[in-house]
Write a structure and sequence with these properties.
Layout lengths: L5 E5 L16 H12 L4 E3 L28 H6 L21 H22 L2 H13 L1 H23 L7 H4 L2 H4 L5 H8 L1 H27 L3 E7 L7 H4 L15 E5 L9 E6 L3 H6 L3 H11 L4 E5 L6 E6 L9 E4 L2 H12 L4 E3 L7 H9 L4 E4 H4 L22 E4 L8 H7 L2 H11 L8 H14 L4 E5 H4 L29 H13 L3
């Protein structure tokens, strides 16, 4: 992919400010686009846009194709007449700095359903026609998604009353619908037609609002980088509706799961628990499901970042009954064959790959063969755990490559300020030695500016700064701590953070460093 020398910001829409408990696709999203454009930025990077599942994680979505209903702007639904202003007259006092996902969900979803009822009852012919076009164009995933979520809600509520811990589709649903047997799908579709229709309207809202926002961003010179997690959640419509595409037993439960092996960060590795693909079956279909997934994502964003890219070359397979990742082993994946097929079907695609961590020569060859852009993270350049004291460390600025994105940190890192304050003395010494500056002159708040300037001045063609680093925030603004199941993904910034000063920082850096 050809890359011009540009810069941008990493910010998920849930982190936008606003009164409704979570960032949405309303006025503050447009204000953020205006802010980036005024700051001469060219990229806005997001996390996955799908409905969140376990732990409120966008990387544990219930669908690889659907949009997150929490991102829908209620104000825009008032504007089109599906809600009344009175519906938003009494908004709960939500935390303005953190998303309280359960509270927001409990308040917002009934309002979205009320709006969807109104749409079905009284939307004008033009909007109804647009809705029917949407349902037709998205039928390949929308029908199964709306049904899955309808069934899931019913059994989640039943499980709550019965105090059942696990209500996932493959552990709690009756066998007939779990395994899609004997006309069960058709019966549920008939019995729950109204609920299914509401789910489809809510997805229509998301797609319509998102496409309008993306069009506005593109008009203002911004490209949007989306995100595809390579693995999908077990409790998702992706697995339920495509059981032969995954390594499952006869009850729909994974026989092996994904993760990463033990390393210097964890003696037992990481057991993620995602089902693994049945690559043999996927090859027989010409990788149709994956190709459809990428096509759908590229209708929502301009550039795709593939998370955990190395699993297209080889992945760590863990027996499902293992509690840790220790007993796993590497299995080869058909990455070359897959991307060749993808190229034949769709041509050269704007793909960025997450090639961080333990990367082998085979992974690099796969990345370079298709000219995919890689990633570099400055926090990894100066951490002894990540080889930061070795001059050959690929994350050090003098080893950067043009065909890559440089970050101060990603959504999985601490903020740069929080990271620096936790560094051991020898790592701080390594930074001051590399910069050829006395450590006493590197104050905590200055380190953020130092790393941002290193990113902007890097030879990497793209430089992306997390919003938290632009604002010089501490660890309480961290987006995610890998290996923890709760308390993540909730950070939000305040509206006043966007101002002439922060705009000027971006504008001046773009000019100074040729971005």
């Amino acid at each position: 992919m050809e890359m011009k020398r540009v810069s941008g910001i990493l910010l998920h829409p849930t982190a936008l400010p606003g009164p409704h408990g979570v960032g949405d696709l309303g006025s503050e999203a447009y204000r953020f686009v205006d802010f980036l454009a005024a700051g001469k930025q060219s990229l806005w990077q997001l996390l996955p846009l799908g409905p969140t599942g376990f732990g409120d994680s966008p990387y544990a979505s219930t669908s690889s194709f659907a949009g997150n209903p929490l991102l829908i702007s209620l104000d825009k639904l008032v504007e089109v007449g599906d809600l009344e202003a009175a519906d938003l007259a009494e908004v709960p006092q939500f935390n303005q700095d953190k998303v309280e996902f359960p509270r927001v969900m409990a308040w917002k979803m009934p309002l979205l359903e009320k709006a969807a009822h109104a749409f079905i009852a009284k939307a004008d012919a033009k909007r109804q026609a647009a809705y029917h076009v949407f349902c037709t164009e998205q039928a390949s995933w929308l029908d199964d998604f709306a049904l899955f979520m309808t069934i899931k809600e019913e059994f989640d509520q039943k499980g709550l009353k019965e105090k059942v811990v696990e209500t996932t589709w493959n552990k709690y649903w009756p066998e007939s619908i779990r395994l899609r047997k004997n006309g069960a799908v058709q019966q549920w579709q008939k019995d729950k037609a109204e609920e299914i229709a509401l789910k489809k309207v809510i997805q229509f809202y998301f797609y319509q609002q998102w496409n309008e926002l993306r069009g506005y961003a593109n008009k203002h010179g911004l490209k949007i980088i989306g995100d595809i997690p390579i693995f999908v959640a077990e409790d998702s419509v992706d697995v339920w509706a495509n059981q032969d595409m995954f390594l499952l037993d006869q009850q729909g439960r994974p026989t092996v799961v994904a993760g990463i092996p033990p390393d210097y960060f964890s003696q037992t590795g990481q057991r993620w628990g995602n089902p693994l693909y049945n690559w043999g079956k996927l090859k027989q279909t010409g990788f149709k499901w994956w190709i459809n997934r990428l096509k759908a994502t590229l209708k929502l964003v301009d550039i795709v970042r593939i998370d955990h890219f190395r699993a297209f070359d080889s992945y760590w397979e863990i027996p499902a009954n293992s509690s840790t990742a220790v007993n796993g082993h590497w299995v080869k994946a058909p990455g070359h064959e897959f991307f060749e097929t993808l190229k034949r079907e769709l041509g050269d695609l704007p793909i960025v790959v997450e090639d961080l961590g333990l990367i082998t020569d085979d992974v690099r060859q796969l990345r370079d063969r298709f000219n995919f852009s890689g990633m570099a993270v400055l926090q990894f350049a100066f951490s002894s755990l990540a080889g930061g004291l070795d001059s050959s460390n690929p994350y050090l600025p003098h080893n950067h490559k043009q065909n890559a994105i440089i970050y101060t940190g990603t959504h999985d890192n601490d903020t740069t300020l929080g990271w620096y304050r936790k560094l051991p003395e020898w790592d701080r010494n390594a930074i001051s030695n590399y910069l050829m500056r006395e450590k006493s002159y590197i104050w905590d708040s200055d380190i953020v500016w130092t790393l941002m300037q290193l990113a902007w001045s890097s030879v990497c063609n793209w430089a992306i700064i997390p919003m938290q680093d632009l604002l010089r925030l501490d660890s309480d603004a961290r987006m995610n701590t890998p290996g923890t199941a709760s308390g993540n993904w909730g950070w939000r910034y305040r509206a006043q953070a966007i101002n002439d000063w922060t705009t000027g920082v971006l504008r001046d850096s773009a000019k100074r460093f040729g971005r």
